[in-house]
Design goal:
single chain, 239 residues, two-stranded antiparallel sheet, globular
Length: 239
């Protein structure tokens, strides 16, 4: 659990009293589920989300978050609450060889980004695509992404903290652009989703994009749906 506005980063230990915590939620999936109907239910469920914690990991060809192609996104951990409040910590690589972390906070139309050297926040400069609220947008991002999938198929049932439906479909270019905050454009993308059988909420997604002829692999993990997150403007805003 982390708080980008203060720089506090807490690691949750998966043990208690020397005992390993069982993270299996006991969910059971129906192997005969209709994948098209399932994704319709998932689109509705995702559109009604009020809060979530999300994690994005990216490997392969660099995906730049700035117009100068100097800052490449490697990982992002964030929290979102309606209406349009989000905070995130981004792990990035600067100039191809300097790993660092950047904090970002978005409240309504205001977005702040932290300086990797001083830690102070400033209003998001023009030419940067790192509004954390856009990485998870229930109504305009996730709902159409899932509702507009084509060639939907049930791949199987996987154990990811309990049984999950593994569904694959083709996401259209406009929906891919929205869900990646304009970082990926002009390409239809096969996406693998893992869906909770009880809630129809997406718990994970994986896909591969191609930029300048090179592939980049994306992994998203979603959890803590409905939790309360304290998302406030950063205190140390410069200028």
């Amino acid at each position: 659990v982390f708080d980008p506005s203060t720089g506090v980063d807490l690691v949750l230990d998966a043990t208690a009293g020397g005992q390993v915590i069982d993270l299996d939620d006991g969910a059971v999936a129906d192997p005969d589920v209709d994948p098209v109907a399932l994704m319709q239910s998932s689109a509705t469920a995702m559109s009604e989300v009020t809060s979530v914690e999300f994690r994005i990991e990216r490997e392969g060809a660099p995906v730049f978050i700035d117009q100068f192609r100097e800052i490449a996104l490697d990982e992002l951990r964030g929290q979102f609450s309606v209406p349009t409040r989000a905070q995130a910590e981004l792990t990035v690589t600067v100039s191809g060889n300097l790993p660092t972390r950047i904090g970002a906070v978005a409240i309504d139309s205001e977005v702040w980004i932290s300086n990797p050297v001083t830690g102070d926040f400033e209003t998001l400069p023009a030419g940067y695509d790192i509004d954390p609220s856009r990485f998870f947008d229930p109504e305009d991002g996730w709902q159409p992404l899932i509702a507009n999938l084509s060639d939907v198929e049930l791949v199987g049932i996987d154990d990811r903290g309990g049984e999950r439906y593994h569904v694959r479909g083709i996401a259209g270019a406009d929906d891919v652009r929205d869900i990646t905050v304009d970082l990926v454009r002009d390409q239809d993308v096969p996406v693998d989703f893992w869906i909770h059988p009880s809630t129809s909420l997406v718990t994970a997604a994986e896909f591969t994009t191609s930029i300048d002829g090179a592939d980049s692999q994306w992994t998203l993990e979603l959890d803590r749906y409905g939790d309360s997150f304290a998302i406030e403007p950063p205190e140390n805003v410069r200028g």
